[in-house]
c-Myc-binding protein (Albula goreensis), 103 residues
Amino acid sequence: MAHYRASESKREQFRRYLEKAGVLDSLTSVLIALYEENEKPNNALDFLKQHLGVASPEPADADALRLELADLRQKYDLLLEENKELKNRLLQHEPAPEDGAAE
């Protein structure tokens, strides 16, 4: 009997945790939205994920992001190279610091 009460207490603590974090409200509202859909989606889990904000990006979006990432990486590499060249040119025109630190 004591084991049952301890288990029930943990369950109640977990329920309060979910309620306090807003999880129960979010799940309830998404389930209500699914219930109120005139045409039920083929994949209810995808519906839940989308409405909870955890849906993965659409393949077209993912492809566009991959292309943008590749483009930005290329620009980054070019800017690093340009920065290196400019530093080298600057060093050629600046006088070398003298030993014995400036006063």
